[in-house]
Fold these 2 entries.
Entry 1:
Amino acid sequence: MPTRKEQKEKRKQDILYAALELFVSKGYAATKITDIAKRVNMSVGLLFHYFESKEKLYEELVRMGLEGTAYPVEQSYDHAIDFFAQFTTQLFLYMRQQPVMAKLFVLMAEAQRSEATPEHIREIAIQVNTIEQFVPIVQWGQREGTIREGDPPVISNAFWCSIQGIMEQYATNQAIDLPEADWIVDIVRRR
Amino acid sequence: MPTRKEQKEKRKQDILYAALELFVSKGYAATKITDIAKRVNMSVGLLFHYFESKEKLYEELVRMGLEGTAYPVEQSYDHAIDFFAQFTTQLFLYMRQQPVMAKLFVLMAEAQRSEATPEHIREIAIQVNTIEQFVPIVQWGQREGTIREGDPPVISNAFWCSIQGIMEQYATNQAIDLPEADWIVDIVRRR
DNA sequence: TGATTCATTGAATATTCATTCAATAATTTA
DNA sequence: TAAATTATTGAATGAATATTCAATGAATCA
């Protein structure tokens, strides 16, 4: 029999998960507290017993996303292209194993991009990896010949935005499988 | 000197454009009528003189998107891969020339995906091209050897989602240029 | 010009929704 | 077991926001 503390923790997780699903499928602003409460079979009053506001709930999810999606970039590779291959493979593997992470990934992306995001929450969301970190790797790859020619930020951006677009779809519907990592890596690979 | 009718039409366009920008940068739900009114220097009352509701405004934008983003798929190509190359090139060209279309593109995507979209609006948005139309072309290309092996819907999806992710970014920031069409076509191209 | 229609305003109203609260039930503690 | 603490409810409150409206000014018409 679970202790009260455990129960409370579980309940909190349930709320977070329900909110995450709704925030991803409808957007933060369009999600009503009653939607969340309904999904976890709970009165609105009780929900506020667990989280002091809708915004705090959002903030907590974004914090979770910050931890959960901090991909390890540290490691040495023979070639720049190996980094992209490894990175993408790992990411897709991770998302397939834990679709909840795909949802968190999308939540983070929206929190970063949307101008409706409360400033202090956006600041948290911005701390995750962005295209900037890919730029030097693209440059390295161009020097050694494994990455295609072109403006490094534009290449990095194309790669990262593609990943984001793919995640956005996968987060709400895992019926269509993620692509092979190589297909996406081919965006940056020199032919 | 413009006639009153012309003035009215121009004003209506201004409102539509301001709403489009806001809907894309903050999302439909988070955009307030006062935000839109402010952006076009107009009282809220007057805005309602032009559009009977926020939802009707949204609906009209989605209708515009339906017309504006109906890409011509009809045409004959020697190879399936040529279709993808042509399609992507044309799309990027179009979006570069008229960034407003990139915004409309993203609005449509969100209207289709979000569960917060009013049903009758979603029905309109759904009429645009989706991955389904790429599937037979992928199959054709696999038979003739120009498209890579793999589940056709998964390949189509990867391609289309990448395009969407790229547009999503470009719609709000044209400072980072769109990639070369070929880079994205390489997602589906057989090596 | 005088009458009529259209444009415009912003305060008033209505609606939707987050948040609070007082009351009750369940659980834990001593 | 009795007191204290925690969980739970849903109706009441309040804030934010969409929508209406009565009044005024500007443009058009006859």
Note: Chain B has one domain: 4-185.
Entry 2:
Amino acid sequence: MENKIFKEFLEKKGLKFTKERAAVLKGVFSTHNHFDPDDLLINLRRKGIRVSKASIYRTLPLLLECGLVEQVEKVDKHAHYEHTFGHGHHDHLICIKCGKIIALYSEKLERLQVNLCKKEKFRCITHTLEIKGYCSKCNAKA
Amino acid sequence: MENKIFKEFLEKKGLKFTKERAAVLKGVFSTHNHFDPDDLLINLRRKGIRVSKASIYRTLPLLLECGLVEQVEKVDKHAHYEHTFGHGHHDHLICIKCGKIIALYSEKLERLQVNLCKKEKFRCITHTLEIKGYCSKCNAKA
DNA sequence: TTACATGCAAACGGTTTGCACCCGG
DNA sequence: CCGGGTGCAAACCGTTTGCATGTAA
């Protein structure tokens, strides 16, 4: 199933469905947990499958691109900060074309989150919401 | 103002309010934009203030800790992934004590986000919501 | 047969750290 | 005066890349 999706995706791009790529795919789908590239390597090794770290790092972006895998908890490779004094908590709309960041605050959204936490008996300390897409300007151009 | 907050915070921890820390604080508050440690260094250099990169890296966690600065766009230093097939989009509750990750999906939340985007004429492609706090188990222990 | 892929090891780049010297309290 | 702080440069470590070799189509 995932196999078929990935294979067709690769075909369309003129890329090859190698045994290493199949292995990475299999590793990815052998767990419902989050993982990082290293987890994946260890996971595969445990199954006796040998794939180089490089191949894992080269395959993951393909899986992202065809939508079989999603990235969690990281947008960029380095830390970003902002000072909070005077403007308090807010969320962000991030334009994936021009990089523009639009701050956003919604009381309704905040309340809803508090309620969702309650349902899970989770004590919320802080949260981060980032919505990625195209800002009005970039959207108009396209 | 920020100065006072930071100074008192340091005092309470038995730490010193040095000119380097003051400089970093000043740099942080001299912009309303996001920045990374390197931006900050350049920003300070431009003003003729010399602080080492190491001091910036050592000061930022303190500013986070006392709430004068927030981290944006990064939780962890390495990428995390999850496969999407079969369980589609969802958000996450992340326990900052035990690391447990609870998946969460709320139709209401999704709808609200779409509406917020509309208001900003933003074309939403994807989003990430992470709520950090204490899971029920860790909460019970504390 | 021939692009494209792989493995390896070296390079990269952001972040952390050891150490000798410095300085705020 | 002294314990924490600083700058510097080296170490770290996750990720990327160049290159010789392998292989899917």
Note: Residues 14-16, 18, 20-21, 50-55, 58, 77-79 of chain B lie near DNA strand D (CB under 10 Å from a C1').
